Amino acid sequence: MVEVKDDEEFGLYVDMPDYDSFDEIEDIFIEHHDIEPLGAQFKDDLGEEMFRLWFDHSVGRKVVQNVVDQYFQDNS
Question: Which of 4-8, 23-27, 44-48, 66-70 has the lowest mean pLDDT?
Fold first, then answer.
């Protein structure tokens, strides 16, 4: 399960397992929920590519988690 995490300073975030799921779920948030996450692609300390979606705290952790859970349930 992909878990929504919270950074007190920057907001909620979700680390996606790959670019395709990152891109698809970003579209779902924008097109179906009118929520525009901030996407980021970076390399972790081991040089692995990471894909992260950031959300403002006002979105609500439960809302983000529900969308993420539904996405992975539909795509399993």
Answer: 44-48
DSSP 18-41: SHHHHHHHHHHHHHHH---PEEEE
Q: Are 21 and 75 in contact (CB under 8 A)?
A: yes
Could you give the 3-state DSSP secondary structure of residue 9? Answer: coil
User: For residue 39, what are the β-bridge partners?
Assistant: 53
Task: Please give the single-letter amino acid code of residue 9.
Answer: E
Which one-letter DSSP state was computed for residue 53? Answer: E
State the Cα–Cα distance between residues 7 and 75, nearest whole angstrom. Answer: 27
pTM: 0.86
CA dihedral 5, 61, 8, 34 (to 10 degrees): 110
Residue type at position 21? S
Strand, helix or coil at 70? helix
